[in-house]
Amino acid sequence: MSYYLGIDTSNYTTSVALYNSDTNEIISKKKLLPVKSGEKGIRQSDAVFHHTVQLPDLMCELFNEKKYDIAGIGVSVKPCNEDGSYMPCFLTGISVAVSLSNALNVPLYRFSHQDGHIMAALYSAEKIELIDDKFLAFHVSGGTSQALFVEPSNNYFKTTVISDSLDLKAGQAIDRVGVSLGLDFPCGPELENLALKSTNSLKKINVFRRDGKFSLSGVENKCKKMLDNGETAEDISVFCLSYIYSAIDDTVNELIAKYGELPIVFSGGVMSNSIIRKKLNEKYNSLFAEPYYSSDNACGIAILASICDKRK
Fold first, then answer.
1. Residue 4: CA atoms inside 13 Å, Cβ hemisphere, count?
2. What is the pTM for the complete model shown?
3. How many Å apart are CA 239 and CA 222, to the nearest integer?
4. Exposed/middle/buried for 8, CB within 10 Å: 0-12, 13-18, 19+?
């Protein structure tokens, strides 16, 4: 059997995965980076340290039950495919991947973290074949809130950014609002649970846009004002999600008008939110990763390594 190892050391999660290219099955292990209570993120130096501690443990868990013949290794080396994209946290994964590649004498394939998210979403939605076609992709997380035009290129796909946040990323907005409500970072799951308890539902909100891009910085101040006015945490959570949903919805409408009715693939931790997913699913030809594959993981990286290896 042909097994491919994927390694992803993002700003939030240490992840490793094995992909069996013969059976299309995945074995995955991941662990969030620890963040102190009340803090809104993690410093890169701390992220590198925690990855250094967590990665060996996860590798031991992955290979604990049996030995696997590794045919190739994939690793995320940067956040996205734009020029200058870089974060030190990925150095931990690169170091291990390069070492293993040389020790095992197997090929090493390098991808962006964003590539992995898109591929994991295609796998989860059972639409891997879309890598040979054109589609729109939204990667919405704590580090990125972008829409991309995806088209076949070389061994897998090429991404071009066609919309982006002008300021705060969606995950950052959720975390900042969540921390102000006393939630633990990362705040997405707890904020979603609060929103589900509200009697309010998602509604369209006018979100500032410029040149096809959107601004999310206003949501933090608006939610703070709601909190100061005595509104409930549940209603504030719904408003926060409504703001993010509205920015995505407006962007989808613009892109459909420009690119036509292409499939739309949603990935990234924010897109695991059941409330936003339901609303978008009702309106568009959309594909979502299951929550496990929506949040940070190494699964897409392992699959991409397999695809590149088979097509070389």
1. 29
2. 0.93
3. 9
4. buried
